[in-house]
Amino acid sequence: MTTETSFLAQVDAAFDRAAAYTSHDRTLLNQIKACNAVYYISFPLRRDDGTIEVIHAYRAEHSHHRMPTKGGIRYSMGVNSDEVMALAALMTYKCALLDVPFGGAKGGIRIDSNAYSVGELERITRRYAFELWKKNFIGPGLDVPAPDYGTGSREMAWIADTYQSLSGGDLNAMACVTAKPVNQGGIRGRNEATGRGVMFGLREACRVTEDMKALGLTPGLSGKRVVVQGLGNVGYHAAKFLSEEGAILVGLAEYEGSISNPNGLDLEMVVAHRKATGSILGFPGAKDLPNSLAALELDCDILVPAALENVITAENAPRIKAKIIGEGANGPTNDAADQILRGRGVYILPDFYLNAGGVTVSYFEWLKNLSHVRFGRMERRFEEQSNRGILDVIGRASGQVLGEDEMLKIAHGASEEELVNSGLEDSMIEAYHEIRAVQKGLGKDIDLRTAALVSSINKVASSYMALGIFP
Ligand code: NAD
Questions:
Q1: Would you state the pLDDT for residue 469?
Q2: Do 166 and 205 belong to one domain?
Q3: Which of 381, 324, 103 is nearest to 206 (CA)?
Q4: Whose CA is nearest to atom 19 of ligand 1?
Q5: 249 and 204 share a domain?
Q6: What is the pLDDT of residue 401?
Q7: In a domain, 234, yes or no
């Protein structure tokens, strides 16, 4: 049962707001909004000390309009059916928006991953994968998990190995899960993809001069003051790529607290300090703030919440000073806060757009697994040789022959990682302008979240309408 403040209720409220701008029949909208399947699992774990514990886990498949369904697996004490259903719905809207041909799904195990040994985590993960397999909730054409909060490529490798051993010689078995280690069927660039996508999305938004002018900002990422909450996969990489583009990290938050320095924080040094001391607090030259939420209220241009949902609420929204919020996490801004911030003219890049880099590159990995060949393998050398030939001819004709370093830089054929990053960049840029076009079509006062959802709803609707069932 959901309550008014549940995560799913928040996602559904945003859906309803956007649905009002479409002309689809109510039954079709109800079908798009509904979660198609939820699987609840509990199983016993024998802990290293011999005691037995019951583990609770879920997998929600929000939409089967495209198969397979796709979405991460989260290890967190906050996992419940409401949360996985909300996150699965966001995956449907995300995939539709980015033209990634999957339905949305999400899984979760209610554990604190720090409280278990590696051996225990492996037993939990393999058993979870087995339970999913038993009920057809995993498979290259059925449902393809990936990492989320508390999981990474190690867990994905365990899942792939478990699935492969159960699937009796299925040639495509490795496509059952994405974000695997590269030497286990993974793809280069996937680990960094979500954070890199956050940077691409924010960079594109900051390039639009008229939007920046309306916010009282200059165009471009360079010099923008950024605060990032959560230094995990998404937050760390977003902070890294944003600083590489010239943004200044003026605040960082982890669960133990936050730090700030208006002159900028060196990300790698903060990470090294945390590794050495167990905390980001006490970082030389930075000011310690009382808790992790305090960073959200720092004076900055761009705020990137990249930890968990529901951190920006009606309580702290009036004190948020950022002009742009880039939602790296899923659901960081609750519905009440969203309305307050919109009223104040804060520009919010919604989660199911901004963090879509992960699923986009997961799609590339899935394609790689099904085609059984690394991107660029067939054409890289050929491309380089033809480019060299063209440059040679031009060089001889113009009398300007290139040196070998310059030649290699221009002529080289694209590697897998370059193709992945380029595909990701293109997807994020295209989707951003698509959302803005929808926004312009709907009228000036429409926020990006609503415009993006209208776009997603229309795409899912067109797929259902092709079945000829709905009016
Ligand atoms: P992660 O487990 O790698 O990192 C999360 C980090 O947040 C950890 O370092 C944790 O200590 C920190 N954290 C926890 N509570 C905090 C708090 N109160 N304040 C500050 N920091 C806190 O997880 P992740 O994969 O980076 O996922 C983060 C968010 O991004 C989630 O909402 C997830 O759904 C979303 N997301 C992840 C991906 C992906 O590819 N991993 C893709 C899309 C969206």
A1: 85
A2: no
A3: 324
A4: 255
A5: yes
A6: 86
A7: yes
Report the residue among 148, 192, 200, 237 best suited for mutation to probe ligand 1: largest number of ligand atoms under 8 A from its CB.
148
**DSSP H or E segment with residue 69:** strand 69-75
Whether 199 and 111 share a structural domain = no
User: 254, 274, 327, 424: which to mutate for ligand 1, most atoms within 8 A of CB?
Assistant: 254
The residues lining ligand 1, judged by C-beta closer than 6 Å to any ligand atom, are 72, 147-150, 194, 229-235, 253-255, 292, 306-308, 328-330, 355, 358
Same-domain pairing of 44 and 170: yes
d(CA 88, CA 104): 5
Does one domain contain both 402 and 305? no
The pair of structure tokens assigned to 291 is 């808790």
Closest C-alpha among 304, 298, 355 to residue 333: 304
Entry pTM: 0.96
State pLDDT tens for residues 216-249.
999 999 999 999 999 999 999 999 999 999 999 9
The per-residue pLDDT for 1 is 38
Cα atoms in the Cβ-side hemisphere of radius 13 Å centred on 66 = 20
Q: Which domain holds residue 400?
A: 379-413
| Catalytic residue positions, numbered | 106
Q: From the CA of 328, how far away is ligand 1's center (Å)?
A: 8
Q: Is residue 9 part of a domain?
A: no
Query: For residue 345, what is the domain's CATH number?
Result: 3.40.50.720
Is residue 343 domain-shared with residue 200, that is, in the same domain?
yes
Counting from 1 in the atom list of ligand 1, the atom nearest the Cα of 74 is 34
